[in-house]
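Tutorial, part two.
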Amino acid sequence: MIKIENISKSYGKVNALTNLNFNVKDGQLYGLIGPDGAGKTSLFRILTTLLLPDTGKATLNNLDVVKDYKEIRRILGYMPEHFSLYLDLSVEENLNFFATVFNTTIEENYYLIKDIYKMLEPFKKRKAGDLSGGMKQKLALSCALIHKPKILLLDEPTTGVDPVSRKEFWEMLKHLQTEGLTTLVSTPFLDDAELCDEVALIQNGSILSVDTPHNIANQYPHQLWEIKSENNYQTLLLLEKFNKKVSAFAFGNVVHFACDKKFDIKEVEQYLISNNVENISIKVIEPSIEDVFMDLMK
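Running the prediction step on this input gives:
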């Protein structure tokens, strides 16, 4: 449904995208995962026909983003990174406006948005600018869906919203998938990757890995340990200096320590004790996508 072949884009001397390649199958919930500045928004602007690539080709439903831009805009639902609806129009007025733009009505495609709109309905007369972050997000998604698109592009849709709204949003995306909608969503949150059918990890405009979340996590080549102590910051600093380490990163209130699979972890424990670290807890853990991403970034 979405095919990206050798897409590159530069802004002057800055390479935003370099030879990107990946495909999104019909009906997939696909994640483009990477930090700010990785190139996610540049790619989305190319896919939405707002920006021309320097090289390469991209197609949506077999339509070329350069030659067939008018047709693509009819089958595409787009939710940009920043809230971009009309702040001085009410919830109802915004939805009516976008339905009219695509020559349809709210009633015709209401089944697509009814679960989302139920939460918005008590505020339908309220101006969009006066909504909370989570409600703005739901309104933007409703406006992107009201013309019954074949493909939905969501650029960092959960950035800046509370954890409950973020969880609700992903539940809505899963429900939309049952309606046969193909969705490409970008996010800087690596734990969101677990909710996607397939993901592409992107950093500095280049793809690091493309696979299912499970397969990507299984690519981790090292033994991984979780280490906790009375002073985790001191522990991290010491582990960064340990000469046999592969990597050491802070993960919440613990440290993820990677080493060779044949390595005896007791060496690390003795090393920390000799440096006056107390109440040490060490256990083997399974790597997450975040661990793989940190390793690939090196």
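Residues 2-217 form a domain with the Rossmann fold fold (CATH 3.40.50.300). In part three we will examine how such features are distributed along the chain.
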